Amino acid sequence: MDKTKSVLKQYENKNNLKTRMNIHEMYSTNKQGFMNWIFEKYQLEKNFKILELGCGDSTIWKNHIDKCEIKYSLTLSDISPGMIQSSKINLANKKNIDYKIIDIQNIPYDDNTFDIVIANMMLYHVPDINLGLKEVNRVLKPNGTFYCATFGEKNVVSYINNVAKIKILNEMSNKFTLKNGNMILSPFFNCIQKDIYNDSLNINDLSHLIDYLKSFSEFSKLSHNELNNIVILLKEEFDKNDGILNIPKEYGIFIAKEKL
Fold this sequence. Notes:
The chain has ten helices and seven strands. By secondary structure, it is of the alpha/beta class. The chain has one domain: Rossmann fold (3-Layer(aba) Sandwich). The protein has a seven-stranded mixed sheet. Helix 6 links the parallel strand 4 and strand 5.
Protein backbone atom coordinates (compact mmCIF):
# COMPACT_ATOMS: atom_id res chain seq x y z
CA MET A 1 0.00 0.00 0.00
CA ASP A 2 1.50 3.34 -1.03
CA LYS A 3 1.80 6.26 1.38
CA THR A 4 -1.29 8.13 0.21
CA LYS A 5 -3.52 5.05 0.37
CA SER A 6 -2.19 4.24 3.84
CA VAL A 7 -3.05 7.73 5.10
CA LEU A 8 -6.51 7.55 3.55
CA LYS A 9 -7.08 4.21 5.26
CA GLN A 10 -5.93 5.54 8.62
CA TYR A 11 -8.14 8.62 8.41
CA GLU A 12 -11.14 7.39 6.45
CA ASN A 13 -13.18 8.41 9.50
CA LYS A 14 -12.47 10.18 12.77
CA ASN A 15 -12.21 7.06 14.98
CA ASN A 16 -8.45 6.52 14.87
CA LEU A 17 -7.77 10.24 15.13
CA LYS A 18 -10.13 10.55 18.09
CA THR A 19 -8.47 7.61 19.87
CA ARG A 20 -5.08 9.27 19.54
CA MET A 21 -6.39 12.64 20.65
CA ASN A 22 -8.16 11.13 23.66
CA ILE A 23 -5.00 9.84 25.28
CA HIS A 24 -3.50 13.32 25.13
CA GLU A 25 -6.65 14.95 26.46
CA MET A 26 -6.88 12.52 29.38
CA TYR A 27 -3.25 12.22 30.47
CA SER A 28 -1.27 15.29 29.39
CA THR A 29 0.46 17.04 32.28
CA ASN A 30 0.22 20.42 30.54
CA LYS A 31 -3.46 21.25 31.00
CA GLN A 32 -3.47 24.13 28.52
CA GLY A 33 -3.84 21.61 25.70
CA PHE A 34 -1.68 21.44 22.59
CA MET A 35 -4.48 22.52 20.23
CA ASN A 36 -5.30 25.53 22.41
CA TRP A 37 -1.62 26.47 22.47
CA ILE A 38 -1.41 26.17 18.68
CA PHE A 39 -4.47 28.36 18.15
CA GLU A 40 -2.96 31.09 20.32
CA LYS A 41 0.01 31.18 17.94
CA TYR A 42 -2.16 32.11 14.98
CA GLN A 43 -2.10 35.78 14.05
CA LEU A 44 -5.58 36.07 12.55
CA GLU A 45 -6.65 39.39 11.10
CA LYS A 46 -9.84 40.67 9.53
CA ASN A 47 -10.27 39.81 5.84
CA PHE A 48 -7.45 37.26 5.88
CA LYS A 49 -7.77 34.27 3.55
CA ILE A 50 -6.76 31.12 5.40
CA LEU A 51 -6.16 27.58 4.12
CA GLU A 52 -5.72 24.61 6.44
CA LEU A 53 -4.31 21.44 4.90
CA GLY A 54 -4.90 18.15 6.71
CA CYS A 55 -7.56 19.70 8.93
CA GLY A 56 -8.75 16.38 10.39
CA ASP A 57 -12.10 16.84 12.10
CA SER A 58 -11.38 20.56 12.74
CA THR A 59 -11.78 20.24 16.51
CA ILE A 60 -9.35 23.12 16.96
CA TRP A 61 -11.74 25.47 15.13
CA LYS A 62 -14.79 24.07 16.89
CA ASN A 63 -13.21 24.75 20.28
CA HIS A 64 -12.47 28.37 19.34
CA ILE A 65 -15.64 29.14 17.44
CA ASP A 66 -16.15 32.33 19.45
CA LYS A 67 -12.87 33.67 18.09
CA CYS A 68 -13.62 33.18 14.42
CA GLU A 69 -16.94 34.90 13.84
CA ILE A 70 -16.88 35.95 10.20
CA LYS A 71 -13.66 37.94 10.46
CA TYR A 72 -11.87 36.11 7.66
CA SER A 73 -12.47 33.42 5.07
CA LEU A 74 -11.41 29.92 6.06
CA THR A 75 -10.89 26.94 3.78
CA LEU A 76 -10.63 23.63 5.62
CA SER A 77 -9.16 20.83 3.56
CA ASP A 78 -8.07 17.24 3.96
CA ILE A 79 -7.15 14.39 1.66
CA SER A 80 -9.77 12.24 3.41
CA PRO A 81 -13.47 12.72 2.54
CA GLY A 82 -14.31 11.26 5.97
CA MET A 83 -12.40 14.01 7.73
CA ILE A 84 -14.13 16.67 5.66
CA GLN A 85 -17.50 15.21 6.62
CA SER A 86 -16.51 15.24 10.31
CA SER A 87 -15.41 18.88 9.98
CA LYS A 88 -18.75 19.84 8.48
CA ILE A 89 -20.54 18.16 11.40
CA ASN A 90 -18.30 19.84 13.97
CA LEU A 91 -18.81 23.26 12.42
CA ALA A 92 -22.44 22.88 11.36
CA ASN A 93 -24.06 26.10 10.14
CA LYS A 94 -20.87 28.08 10.56
CA LYS A 95 -20.64 30.73 7.84
CA ASN A 96 -17.60 31.81 5.86
CA ILE A 97 -16.04 28.34 5.78
CA ASP A 98 -15.32 26.30 2.64
CA TYR A 99 -14.55 22.58 2.71
CA LYS A 100 -12.31 20.97 0.11
CA ILE A 101 -10.66 17.62 -0.53
CA ILE A 102 -7.07 18.63 -1.26
CA ASP A 103 -3.73 16.88 -1.58
CA ILE A 104 -1.00 19.26 -0.39
CA GLN A 105 1.11 18.11 -3.35
CA ASN A 106 -1.42 19.63 -5.76
CA ILE A 107 -3.22 22.64 -4.22
CA PRO A 108 -5.94 23.86 -6.62
CA TYR A 109 -5.51 27.60 -6.05
CA ASP A 110 -3.72 30.41 -7.85
CA ASP A 111 -0.35 31.78 -6.78
CA ASN A 112 -0.35 34.24 -3.87
CA THR A 113 -3.91 33.44 -2.76
CA PHE A 114 -3.68 32.98 1.02
CA ASP A 115 -2.49 35.13 3.92
CA ILE A 116 -2.10 32.04 6.12
CA VAL A 117 -1.55 28.37 5.31
CA ILE A 118 -1.72 25.77 8.09
CA ALA A 119 -0.48 22.15 8.01
CA ASN A 120 -0.42 20.73 11.53
CA MET A 121 0.72 17.22 12.41
CA MET A 122 0.57 16.02 8.82
CA LEU A 123 3.72 16.89 6.86
CA TYR A 124 5.35 13.59 7.89
CA HIS A 125 2.54 11.82 5.99
CA VAL A 126 3.27 13.58 2.68
CA PRO A 127 4.93 11.28 0.09
CA ASP A 128 6.86 14.14 -1.54
CA ILE A 129 7.28 16.73 1.20
CA ASN A 130 9.33 19.08 -0.99
CA LEU A 131 6.58 19.13 -3.59
CA GLY A 132 4.03 19.80 -0.85
CA LEU A 133 6.04 22.69 0.56
CA LYS A 134 6.61 24.08 -2.93
CA GLU A 135 2.83 24.18 -3.36
CA VAL A 136 2.37 25.84 0.05
CA ASN A 137 4.96 28.43 -0.92
CA ARG A 138 3.23 29.04 -4.25
CA VAL A 139 -0.28 29.71 -2.90
CA LEU A 140 0.94 31.77 0.07
CA LYS A 141 1.11 35.54 -0.36
CA PRO A 142 4.61 37.11 -0.23
CA ASN A 143 3.98 38.47 3.28
CA GLY A 144 2.00 35.41 4.39
CA THR A 145 2.64 32.96 7.23
CA PHE A 146 2.90 29.18 7.21
CA TYR A 147 2.10 27.34 10.47
CA CYS A 148 3.12 23.69 10.77
CA ALA A 149 3.02 21.85 14.10
CA THR A 150 4.84 18.56 14.55
CA PHE A 151 6.49 16.34 17.16
CA GLY A 152 10.06 15.68 18.25
CA GLU A 153 12.06 12.49 18.50
CA LYS A 154 10.45 11.55 21.82
CA ASN A 155 6.75 10.69 21.56
CA VAL A 156 4.23 7.98 22.39
CA VAL A 157 5.14 5.91 19.34
CA SER A 158 8.89 5.93 20.06
CA TYR A 159 8.13 5.03 23.70
CA ILE A 160 6.02 2.02 22.70
CA ASN A 161 8.62 0.92 20.16
CA ASN A 162 11.33 1.09 22.85
CA VAL A 163 9.45 -0.64 25.68
CA ALA A 164 7.83 -3.30 23.51
CA LYS A 165 11.04 -3.82 21.53
CA ILE A 166 9.30 -3.35 18.19
CA LYS A 167 9.58 -1.08 15.18
CA ILE A 168 6.13 -1.81 13.82
CA LEU A 169 4.80 1.65 14.63
CA ASN A 170 6.46 3.81 12.02
CA GLU A 171 3.63 6.03 10.78
CA MET A 172 4.99 8.92 12.81
CA SER A 173 8.35 8.69 11.09
CA ASN A 174 11.24 11.10 11.40
CA LYS A 175 10.36 12.61 8.02
CA PHE A 176 9.39 15.99 9.49
CA THR A 177 10.13 16.62 13.17
CA LEU A 178 11.17 19.43 15.48
CA LYS A 179 14.74 18.30 14.91
CA ASN A 180 14.87 18.42 11.13
CA GLY A 181 11.94 20.73 10.34
CA ASN A 182 14.00 23.91 10.09
CA MET A 183 16.32 22.33 7.55
CA ILE A 184 13.37 21.06 5.48
CA LEU A 185 11.59 24.42 5.52
CA SER A 186 14.68 26.55 4.84
CA PRO A 187 14.66 26.19 1.02
CA PHE A 188 11.18 27.74 1.00
CA PHE A 189 11.24 30.37 3.78
CA ASN A 190 13.79 32.91 4.97
CA CYS A 191 12.39 33.43 8.49
CA ILE A 192 11.59 30.30 10.51
CA GLN A 193 10.63 30.34 14.19
CA LYS A 194 10.33 27.18 16.30
CA ASP A 195 8.24 27.22 19.49
CA ILE A 196 8.20 24.26 21.89
CA TYR A 197 5.19 23.04 23.86
CA ASN A 198 6.33 21.52 27.16
CA ASP A 199 4.33 18.42 28.06
CA SER A 200 4.33 14.72 28.98
CA LEU A 201 1.83 11.94 29.59
CA ASN A 202 1.10 10.32 32.96
CA ILE A 203 -0.95 7.24 32.04
CA ASN A 204 -2.59 5.27 34.87
CA ASP A 205 -4.84 3.04 32.76
CA LEU A 206 -2.93 0.70 30.47
CA SER A 207 -6.03 -0.12 28.42
CA HIS A 208 -6.01 3.38 26.95
CA LEU A 209 -2.43 2.95 25.77
CA ILE A 210 -3.43 -0.37 24.16
CA ASP A 211 -6.35 1.38 22.43
CA TYR A 212 -3.88 3.95 21.13
CA LEU A 213 -1.71 1.15 19.79
CA LYS A 214 -4.69 -0.47 18.08
CA SER A 215 -5.45 2.74 16.18
CA PHE A 216 -2.44 2.07 13.92
CA SER A 217 -2.88 -0.07 10.82
CA GLU A 218 0.38 -1.90 11.53
CA PHE A 219 -1.21 -3.39 14.65
CA SER A 220 -3.62 -5.46 12.55
CA LYS A 221 -0.70 -7.02 10.66
CA LEU A 222 0.81 -8.61 13.79
CA SER A 223 0.25 -12.20 14.80
CA HIS A 224 -1.67 -13.11 17.94
CA ASN A 225 1.57 -14.04 19.73
CA GLU A 226 3.23 -10.77 18.72
CA LEU A 227 0.29 -8.79 20.03
CA ASN A 228 0.30 -10.66 23.33
CA ASN A 229 4.03 -10.10 23.75
CA ILE A 230 3.64 -6.34 23.26
CA VAL A 231 0.88 -6.18 25.88
CA ILE A 232 2.95 -8.26 28.32
CA LEU A 233 5.98 -5.98 27.97
CA LEU A 234 3.88 -2.84 28.43
CA LYS A 235 2.22 -4.42 31.48
CA GLU A 236 5.61 -5.20 32.98
CA GLU A 237 6.70 -1.58 32.53
CA PHE A 238 3.38 -0.41 33.97
CA ASP A 239 3.75 -2.56 37.10
CA LYS A 240 7.41 -1.67 37.51
CA ASN A 241 6.44 2.00 37.72
CA ASP A 242 3.66 1.51 40.28
CA GLY A 243 0.83 1.80 37.78
CA ILE A 244 1.97 5.07 36.19
CA LEU A 245 3.66 5.38 32.82
CA ASN A 246 5.38 8.72 32.35
CA ILE A 247 5.91 9.25 28.64
CA PRO A 248 7.90 12.24 27.36
CA LYS A 249 6.24 14.38 24.70
CA GLU A 250 8.13 16.67 22.36
CA TYR A 251 5.66 18.83 20.48
CA GLY A 252 5.92 22.25 18.91
CA ILE A 253 5.23 24.44 15.92
CA PHE A 254 7.22 26.09 13.14
CA ILE A 255 6.10 29.57 12.08
CA ALA A 256 7.58 30.32 8.67
CA LYS A 257 7.58 33.71 6.88
CA GLU A 258 9.34 35.56 4.07
CA LYS A 259 8.88 32.92 1.42
CA LEU A 260 11.74 32.40 -1.01
